[in-house]
Design a protein that fits this description.
Layout (H helix, E strand, L loop, with lengths): L12 E2 L16 E2 L3 E7 L2 E2 L19 E2 L1 H19 L9 E7 L7 H8 L5 E2 L14 E3 L4 H14 L3 E3 L16 E3 L4 H14 L4 E7 L2 H17 L3 E8 L10 H16 L4 E5 L5 H10 L5 E5 L7 H4 L8 E8 L7 H5 L26 H7 L1 H7 L3 H19 L14 H10 L1 E4 L2 E4 L10 E5 L11 E6 L4 E3 L26 E5 L7 E5 L4 E2 L10 E2 L4 E2 L8 E2 L1 E3 L6 H26 L4 H5 L3 H15 L10 H34 L5 H9 L2 H23 L5 E4 L6 E5 L4 H25 L10 H24 L3 H32 L6 H15 L1
Parallel strand pairs: 3-6, 3-8, 8-9, 9-10, 11-12, 11-13, 13-14, 14-15, 27-29
Antiparallel strand pairs: 1-7, 2-6, 4-5, 15-18, 16-17, 18-19, 19-20, 21-22, 23-24, 25-26, 28-29
Bound molecules: 2-acetamido-2-deoxy-beta-D-glucopyranose (9 copies).
Length: 843
């Protein structure tokens, strides 16, 4: 020792007071002398209640508690590994590895063995400032098995940087190497176990589960972790979670606990969740499963945490096969040759057992019943294979490999040096070796990334009671090779455990309660749909040109509605238009034929052709109202007809003005009349009016649009109305206003000349036409604002044709009639007499 031991204030811990474990005799299973000792902590007995002995100053007597069959099995694995290392001398040639194994009885007896391991040969544990050069009794500790004890032990061992390798404490806390620098383990951490469980549930679509936990750290930590994991994914919900009562050491329940257990079983019987995850040490489950059998619970999928996944005692409760399917998460199986025989090998009859009367020779390094009970379970243990056993085995080998490296061993020789635990720890972190086909090394968190397996309990396969049905790879965080699960259900079908059945396509989910897994299925309403790719909680609205029925998964194209040729109104309007066209054509011919006659001249002369031309065109173009609208058709509807109309009205106005002027004012303002004639006043006026109208129409079009619009028919969702931009009714009013204005002007002139000869007076016609045009426009607008669709188009075309017909028949009709049937009135003489009559009346 480099540094002198401080005598003051060093305190000597007198372990004898605590009655430390004794060096048992050489052939005890619990100790083996050697050059370097390993400490081993195993649970051969268990007191599920935890420390129950603190009222007496005595180390608890483990053998008074329940026996834990697997604990002895694991302890044998450590012994097996040490013996194998000592037998095959290539790893530590010339050295003998020894051990001290203590039963910690789950939680009750974990401090005292640690102090024993930390003390020196003479049972003294010095209080020092610096333990760099301190050599405790053991060089490393294997175990203990559960996380709660491991934490206690690790808190001591970490102070000394004494390497500790646990084989089944899975708690994630131990990944924190700031807190537990000397703790390593040969199993994947709890998060991997939980992930494997969750992936199993996801694989089979179980999203409605029950969680039962033991009333200790193991149950609480793991259920918390599972809850957190499920909250991340949101696809699995916990129907309820219950804490199982912890039985008394003699496996009895108090009346309160019994009532509590009954409540849990009642809930279990009534719930729709068929998957039950149980996080609990196995000893607490015997009473529970007894009750499960008594309650005749069936059809359940039990998911076992690693604590009881391969428990032979529960497995021997063969009645359990009727309650459903048992699946468990545990470490991978690695066959270890010779272990099955070693497990039940009796120590040779040596000297008699050590004298137990001395004050040192305390308990907890003994287990009289262990070997016999293990023998009785040997068949199951042998056929279930080595799983956790291999974790113990590899932990011992990891220490041996580290020793090998620390002592600079060759094939034949090792330097027998003092081993300081902290130096050994450094070597253990670096080990990397192959053991029975598996690569053993510690990752950043001090875990060996061993594969996990999902196993099933099979009572029908006595040679393989826990066959693997899936594998989980920690590095990939994925469950693979799920196969050969035999479901305890009709026809071997996978049980379902869902809060609500999945909604069909065409339905959406409506949440019920707080769980995302519980919902109602609501049919999508007409006009909405849901297919595989859309959100499950909403029905998507159909795109505008389509529609859907209730509960549809897609939308269909709606029927387009527009005016069609075969419809009665179309034929009627077409007949009207044909009538208009033919009469206009006839008028044109008649006027052409009688062009020089006074009747034609009084009607406007060449200007008549200016009116008749657009009229003809307008009639000829009425087809644009029939058929699906296009840009061109809408342009026509919105602009062409109104322009034609304006040309006609302005021609008539110009003509009225001219006549009124000739008769009334030419005498007073001869020069202005000359001006009017010289510059083709009527044409200029018509051109001006047309230009203004054009400007208005173009303005309208810029404001709206000429492309057709498609809207759904509010009365029939299967129909889409195709029409020109509905805003064009605003334009229509504008147009009509201008036409009205023109008409009013024309009417004024006509009215002023009301006493003119009747063949010059158009007041009646203009009034008629104006009134008709205006009322029809107003009613059309009103109609448009109330109705929609094809009816509007019909009204529109009807009004347009009627307006033109009014001009053709109202204006030109009487004139043609006179020309054809009263040719005597169509003579210059007759006209002159009329004018003379007028002049005379006037004078
Ligand atoms: C170690 O060697 C002894 C004697 O050869 C043998 O009986 C024993 O089975 C061996 N142990 C192991 C674990 O190989
Ligand atoms: C379970 O079944 C047995 C026989 O089938 C019956 O006697 C017993 O009452 C049942 N137990 C419960 C809790 O239903
Ligand atoms: C055991 O102890 C008792 C008394 O303490 C003593 O009489 C006896 O000889 C001892 N036996 C052995 C084998 O040491
Ligand atoms: C274990 O079994 C053997 C024989 O099989 C028997 O002699 C012995 O008394 C048993 N031990 C215990 C502690 O039951
Ligand atoms: C298994 O259970 C049966 C009856 O339930 C019992 O007789 C047998 O002893 C048990 N096996 C072991 C190894 O305990
Ligand atoms: C361990 O050794 C193997 C080969 O012997 C190597 O492939 C592997 O990367 C090593 N692992 C670590 C963590 O060093
Ligand atoms: C599944 O089980 C059958 C018989 O039980 C066996 O033949 C087959 O190899 C198994 N499949 C796998 C992948 O283990
Ligand atoms: C079970 O499967 C068989 C054939 O595979 C089938 O005829 C039978 O209807 C199934 N029974 C049930 C309850 O599903
Ligand atoms: C589901 O609907 C969306 C949106 O309409 C579409 O893009 C997608 O292709 C549809 N998926 C299937 C599978 O029909």
């Amino acid at each position: 020792m480099g540094r002198p031991r401080r005598t003051f204030p060093s305190l000597i811990l007198l372990l004898q007071v605590l009655a430390g474990p004794t060096r048992a005799s050489e052939n005890s299973e619990f100790s083996l002398a050697g050059d370097y000792l390993l400490g081993g902590l195993f649970t051969l007995h268990a007191n599920m209640k935890g420390p129950a002995h603190l009222d007496v100053l005595q180390v608890p007597k483990c053998k008074e508690y329940d026996l834990k069959v697997l604990g002895y099995n694991l302890m044998q694995a450590m012994r097996f590994a040490v013996e194998e290392i000592n037998n095959h001398s290539s790893l530590l040639p010339g050295l003998l590895l020894g051990y001290e194994i203590v039963d910690i009885c789950y939680l009750s007896n974990n401090v005292q063995p640690v102090l024993y391991f930390l003390a020196q040969e003479d049972y003294f544990l010095p209080i020092l400032e610096d333990y760099s050069n301190y050599v405790p009794r053991v060089v490393a500790v294997i175990g203990p098995d559960n996380s709660e004890s491991t934490k206690t032990v690790a808190n001591f061992l970490s102070l000394f940087l004494l390497p500790q390798i646990t084989y089944s404490a899975i708690s994630d806390q131990f990944r924190d190497k700031q807190r537990y620098p000397a703790m390593l383990r040969t199993v994947p951490s709890a998060s991997h176990h939980i992930e494997a469980m969750v992936q199993l549930m996801l694989h089979f679509g179980w999203n409605w589960i029950v969680v039962l936990v033991s009333n200790d750290d193991y149950g609480r930590d793991n259920s918390q972790r599972l809850g957190d994991r499920l909250a991340e994914g949101n696809d699995i919900c916990i129907a309820f979670q219950e804490v199982l009562p912890m039985p008394e050491p003699d496996q009895t329940l108090t009346p309160d606990q019994r009532a509590h257990l009954s409540r849990i079983l009642l809930k279990l019987q009534q719930t729709t969740a068929r998957v039950v995850v149980v996080f609990s040490p196995e000893l607490a489950l015997h009473v529970f499963f007894d009750q499960v059998l008594r309650w005749n619970i069936t059809g359940t999928v039990w998911i076992a945490s690693e604590s009881w996944a391969i428990d032979p005692v529960l497995y021997n409760l063969t009645e359990l096969r009727h309650t459903g399917t048992f699946l468990g998460i545990t470490t991978q199986k690695v066959p270890m040759l010779g272990f099955s025989e070693f497990r039940v090998r009796r120590a040779q009859d040596g000297p008699p057992p050590p004298n137990r009367t001395s004050s040192w020779a305390t308990c907890n390094q003994e287990c009289d019943a262990c070997l016999n009970i293990t023998e009785s379970f040997n068949t199951i243990l042998t056929s279930s294979g080595e799983r956790v056993v291999y974790s113990v085995y590899s932990a011992v080998y990891a220490v041996a490999h580290a020793l090998h490296s620390l002592l600079g061993c060759t094939q034949t020789h090792c330097a027998k040096e003092v081993v300081y635990p902290w130096r050994l720890l450094e070597k253990i972190w670096k080990v990397n070796f192959t053991l029975l086909g598996n690569q053993i090394f510690f990752d950043q968190q001090g875990d060996v990334p061993m594969r996990l397996e999902v196993i099933q309990w099979r009572w029908d396969l006595p040679l393989n009671p826990f066959p693997s049905v899936a594998s989980y790879y920690p590095s990939e965080r994925r469950l693979r090779n799920i196969h050969n699960i035999s479901w305890h259900a009709h026809n071997n079908t996978v049980p379902t455990s869902m809060c609500s059945k999945n909604c069909e396509l065409g339905q959406r989910k409506r949440p019920v309660g707080i769980h995302p897994c519980c919902f109602e299925c609501i049919d999508c309403s007409p006009g909405t749909f849901r297919n595989q790719t859309s959100d499950e909680y909403v029905c998507q609205p159909c795109p505008s040109s389509t529609w859907s029925h209730r509960k549809d998964t897609s939308c269909f194209q709606r029927r387009l509605a527009f005016l069609e040729w075969h419809e009665a109104p179309t034929i009627f309007v077409a007949l009207l238009a044909a009538l208009g066209f033919l009469s206009t054509l006839a008028t044109l011919v008649i006027f052409w034929w009688h062009f020089p006659t006074p009747m034609v001249r009084s009607a406007g002369g060449p200007m008549c052709f200016l009116m008749l031309g657009p009229l003809l065109l307008a009639y000829a173009m009425t087809w644009v109202y029939v058929g699906p609208p296009s840009v061109f058709r809408c342009l026509c509807r919105q602009a062409f007809f109104t322009l034609c109309f304006t040309v006609c009205i302005s021609c008539i106005t110009a003509r009225s003005f001219q006549i009124m002027y000739v008769f009334k004012m030419a005498r007073h303002l001869p020069r202005a009349y000359g001006f009017w004639v010289r510059y083709h006043g009527p044409y200029a006026f018509v051109a001006l009016m047309t230009a203004i109208k054009m400007a208005i129409v173009v303005g309208n079009m810029l404001g709206t649009s000429t492309s057709p619009t498609v809207r759904s028919d509010p009365e029939d969702h299967h129909v889409m109305i195709v029409s020109c931009h509905p805003n064009y009714r605003n334009g229509l009013l504008f147009n009509t206003s201008m036409d009205l204005l023109l008409s009013v002007v024309g009417f004024t002139f006509a009215y002023l000349g009301k006493e003119l000869p009747t063949n010059y007076n158009e007041a009646r016609f203009i009034t008629l036409s104006m009134t008709f045009s205006f009322t029809s426009s107003v009613s059309l607008c009103t109609f448009m604002s109330v109705h929609d669709g094809v009816l509007v188009t019909i009204m529109d075309v009807l009004v347009t044709v009627l307006n033109f017909l009014a001009i053709t028949l109202g204006y030109f009709g009487p004139k043609c009639y006179l020309i054809l049937f009263y040719p005597e009135r169509n003579t210059a003489a007759y006209f002159n007499s009329m004018i003379q009559g007028y002049t005379m009346r006037k004078d």
